[in-house]
Amino acid sequence: MADVIVEREGGVMVVRLNRPERMNSLGGTLLADLSSAVDEARWDDRVRAVVVTGEGRGWCAGADLQAMGSGGGANENSKRANAMDPIGAVGRAILNIHNADKPMIAAVNGVAVGGGFGICSAFDVRIASDQARFSTVFIKRALAPDCGLSWFLPRLVGPERAAELFFSGRMVDANEALELGIVSKVVPHDQLMDASLAFANEIGKLPPSAMTYTRRALKNSMSATLSEHLEFEWFNQKACLASPEFGEGVKAFLEKREPDFSKF
Predict the structure, then answer these.
(1) What is residue 140's three-state secondary structure?
(2) What is the pLDDT of residue 64?
(3) SS3 257
(4) Which is the CATH superfamily of the domain at 4-204?
(5) 104 pLDDT exceeds 70?
């Protein structure tokens, strides 16, 4: 059974994390399959947006502790970590999501904890089921945060709230996640995929090159100085002004009609 299921819903790629018996924890081929799906979406002009959800009761429960626990104990796990490359498969998956050039939407159907929370935080938008829950959890396993969460979470909720969540490792329900800014929307559990696909399809109607440059601008703003970012914005804008999508947008405005970006 594949650890990731990839489906198409028109211009939307739907990716389902498929280790439900382990709450979609990061084992098997899940990370490699997720990275491959994101790569496929990035280079496929037919894909306008990507929605990632989990099969079963969880979105992603982070590290597969059951597998780690059967691997020889703490010393063996330490040796395994030291043998890894600097960012590992998890880091590559997170970078792929972050750099995907397509809108990335997490449809969070259940728990997203530890590394699963980290991967979830790499997405552009998180829409949560009212059954979703989030936890940094690392401190409770005698671990430091990884999977990018200590980079993403302070940017989502601010450094003080991030510190409280890391130091306590407590569980956050969907409504508190909305209040904190971890997710952008909470919907009834049975409406999660409909709401996520509706949002993905709506943004899929927008000009793809402008969407790519907008996404890049948002990512660049997190690390650039203002002067650097103003230059980056103008570079993006020049590319958009030269695009056929801009021509269609202007023509539609002059003709008092809705633009049609489906042909681009």
Answers:
(1) helix
(2) 84
(3) coil
(4) 2-enoyl-CoA Hydratase; Chain A, domain 1 (3.90.226.10)
(5) yes
